[in-house]
Amino acid sequence: MKTTILLLLSLFLLPFNGCSQMSKKLDVIIKNDSLCFFTNDPDTDYYDSNKELLIYINKLEHKKEIATVFEKKYTNSPLPIKEKDCLKIPISILKKDTPYIVSLEMRRIYIVEICLKNNNNQMFVQKIITGEKTCPMN
Questions:
Q1: Distance between CA atoms of 130 and 118, rounded to whole angstroms?
Q2: Helix (H, G, I), strand (E, B) or coil at 130
Q3: Paired residues of 35 in beta bridges
Q4: Is the pLDDT of residue 128 over 50?
Q5: Taking a C-beta distance cutoff of 8 angstroms, is the pair 109, 61 a contact?
Q6: C-beta separation of 101 from 26 below 8 A
Q7: 66 burial level (CB within 10 Å; 0-12, 13-18, 19+)
Q8: Residue 5: is its pLDDT beyond 50?
Q9: Which of 29, 80, 109, 138 is most buried by its number of CB atoms within 10 A?
């Protein structure tokens, strides 16, 4: 009887758990010719006991197909919560003035939409407004 009540209660609460799995903001900076991604979220945790993280970068395009430009699985790496433990990806894999969406999958999904911009020979990351598919002009 007790097991049946717990099972029914967990089935009732399951849909509410899914709502809490919405994506969160992913932070990014440029550090030593690499893009450096971190969550800045103390609640960041691995997906499961395998301690795996998956980061991938897709072009934001008006096409039905998704163009993945980078994908990497990390196992047993430190959680990228703070900048010092960030996941580094070579900046050379991205093209300037091209919009990208970056997703970091763990227990939660962290997302940022970015463009690489150049100002006076200085590269910087510009975030894109959610829903936009082009890089801002400024």
A1: 21
A2: coil
A3: 30, 89
A4: yes
A5: no
A6: no
A7: exposed
A8: no
A9: 80
Closest CA to 92 of 31, 29, 35: 35
Structure tokens at 122: 């200085």
Q: Which of 25-39, 60-74, 90-104, 107-121 has the lowest mean pLDDT?
A: 60-74
Number of other CB atoms surrounding residue 23 within 10 Å: 13
Alpha-carbon distance of 22 to 40, in angstroms, equals 16
- Under DSSP, the state recorded for 64 is S
Cα–Cα distance measured from residue 138 to residue 88, given in angstroms and rounded to the nearest whole number: 26
Query: How many CB atoms are located within 10 Å of the residue 88 CB?
Result: 13
Give me 42's structure tokens: 């103390």
Q: Which two tokens stand for residue 115?
A: 């463009």
